[in-house]
Amino acid sequence: MPNKRVPNWMNYLGLGMQLLVLLALALWGGMELDKRFNMSPFLTLTLPLLVLIMTFYRVIRETSKRKNKDE
Question: What is the average pLDDT value for the chain, to the nearest integer?
Fold first, then answer.
């Protein structure tokens, strides 16, 4: 089987869905942990924010790798 190069847009096709699923899980997990530890809005706000920061960091890192690789 020949080694075909995958177009750049296909690498990021599932990123939106992945972000939504991770945010939903972080929100649900934060609400459950807030109920368990009685920390009202703290974890419900913090976990989705951490997911966003990690996701954007990953996207920036991957796109900069591709940019350097293409040059």
Answer: 86
The residue type at 65: K
Q: Compute the radius of gyration of the chain from its Cα atoms.
A: 17
Name the more confident of 70 and 28. Answer: 28
Name the burial class of residue 51, with classes exposed (0-12), middle (13-18) and buried (19+) by CB atoms within 10 angstroms of its CB: buried
pTM: 0.76
CA–CA distance from 55 to each of 12, 16, 33 (Å)? 12, 10, 22
60-68: which pairs have CB atoms within 8 A and are 24 or more residues apart? 62/11, 66/8
Please give the pLDDT value at position 37.
Answer: 95
